[in-house]
Amino acid sequence: MKRYMSIWFPCLLTDWWTKRNPQHRDRPVVFVEKNHGRLIVTATNIEARQLGIHQGVPAADAKAMVSGLIAIDGIPDKAEQLLAAIGEWCIRFTPVVAVDVPDGLSLDISGCAHLWGNEKKYLTDIASRLHEHGYTTRIGIADTIGAAWAAARFSANPIVEPSQQTAALSQLPPDALRLEAETLERLHKIGFRTIESFMHIKRSALRRRFGNHLLQRLDQALGHEFEFIHPLLPVAPYEERLPCLEPIVTRTGIEIALQKLLDALCERLRNEGLGLRNAVVKCYRVDNKIEIIEVNTSSASNNPLHLFRLFEMKISDVKPSWGIELFVLNALNVEPVRLNQSVVWNASQTGFEKAELTELLDRINVKAGADAVFRYLPQEHYLPERSIVRAQSLLQTTETPWWNDRPRPTVLLQQPEPIQVTAPIPDYPPMLFVYENEVHKIAKADGPERIEREWWIDEGEFRDYYMVEDELGQRYWIFRAGAYEDGRVARWFIHGFFA
User: Fold this and answer.
1) Alpha-carbon gap, residue 460 to 481, rounded angstroms
2) CA separation for the pair 355, 58 (Å, rounded)
3) Are 52 and 62 in contact (CB under 8 A)?
4) Residue 480, φ and ψ in degrees, nearest 5
5) Beta pairing partners, 159
6) Are residues 36 and 101 in the same domain?
7) Helix 212-222 and helix 203-210: axis angle, to 10°?
């Protein structure tokens, strides 16, 4: 069952201002903004309301009514910024938090309240924490967003029990349905003082008189129509967004959006000496679906042209449908960029430090797959399968040198595979072996090379390795596990292939 919470901040702006000016905590404070050439009160604190000052009152009348009234010039979009910041803070209570402009938050708390014991303790904890931060709140909980909104603002009981929203809403005024001022005025003129007074009237009559919005709000509050919630997504440290004035439906439009995003993000990364290793582009479509493309790089890169070429190979996977209205580029993994030192003599740069090589490998990875290109580094182990480890990146280094004193196969199996052999005498290389139901007659052999077991890691037998060549000229690396003792039949394995 879905459960929602609505948090109402009746004094959002004034509480924020009072926090920064505690010396005026007990004085009436209002915010004012210009409207058609005169100043109008747009926000008040509790002290101002107790003295009869409410939103919409001319600032001159308010100052005449209350001497010593503190009037603050309004700050554009400040309420939305505060709600977004508080909403991100509330993510500690539930992962789904949405801004409810102009003075509230909507939270999907399904499955969260039991972590606090029950919904009452959950509500009390949130309210007390916000109060400690200086904000006055009223909170409601119900099965629907609309019922929770109404409970927070108009009901004496903040928690509506499951499936009881109809009874809880029936005695509340029409204002509890989040309707426009014009619709509310018409409802009051007709004499509808409570939601119950028109709740059971024929829908066709209500639609004809008040339009579809009244029915929609009523259905949403009662749970007959689902209401979507658009949660806040905390902005990642390295993220760029590009909203579109018109939905983008063409490949050209997507390419232009990608170029703008990459230019902005790479400029930030260059200024901080960083580059990205993993990036994701999310394309938000108008039908609320998201198209995602992701790329990885072999080394940290802040080259927008190179990164664009990687994304360009995947643009065909994006299905814009009716159009994309928002692009979000997020660098999931960033690392310091290794700066190449310039040289004064004519020396050619080699190795993975060369940007052209790593960018080529990135393009190969995009076309062939993320695991198409990788490299190994040596480890200090005797057993061949333990003597190498896959590198985290192409630029990763190790202090352990490669062992070059003995030949090693080009392809090494992750784990040795058993084979059947025929050997003339125990300590000699085999005459033939059978691998994957194919008989290989051995023409040449070199060995044995004994590799002891690493007893400090696990117990086991030593291995005697042979490099053998069959009659077709193909070379293999095989070994015998242990020695022939007391009539025991030795086990043979194949471990690698030479070029």
Assistant:
1) 9
2) 65
3) no
4) -105, 130
5) 141
6) yes
7) 130
What is the number of domains present in the chain? 3
* Residue the block writes with tokens 């393009």: 363
Count of beta carbons in the 10 Å neighbourhood of residue 256: 14
Residue 473 DSSP one-character state: S
The number of CA neighbours under 13 Å toward the Cβ of 408 is 15
- pLDDT at residue 386, rounded to an integer: 81
Which amino acid is it at 333? N
**Angle (deg, nearest 10), helices 203-210 and 181-190:** 120
394/174 Cα distance (integer angstroms)? 65
In the predicted model, residues of the chain with pLDDT beneath 50 are: 341-350
Range of the domain at 302: 239-336
- Tell me the one-letter amino acid at 291: E
3-class DSSP state of 184? helix
Six token digits for residue 216: 């929609």
Question: Cβ(265)–Cβ(257) under 8 Å?
Answer: no
Alpha carbon of 442 to those of 314, 377, 469, 490, 493: distances in Å?
49, 32, 6, 18, 15
Q: Are residues 329 and 454 in the same domain?
A: no
- CA 237 from chain centre, in angstroms, equals 12
Distance CA 154, CA 158 (A): 9
15 Cβ contact list (under 8 Å, min separation 6)? 9, 45, 134, 135, 136
**What is the predicted pLDDT for the residue at 337?**
82
CATH code assigned at 106? 3.30.70.270
Residues ≥6 apart with Cβ < 8 Å to 265: 238, 239, 240, 276, 304, 329, 331
CA geometry: angle 344, 350, 353, nearest 5 deg:
90
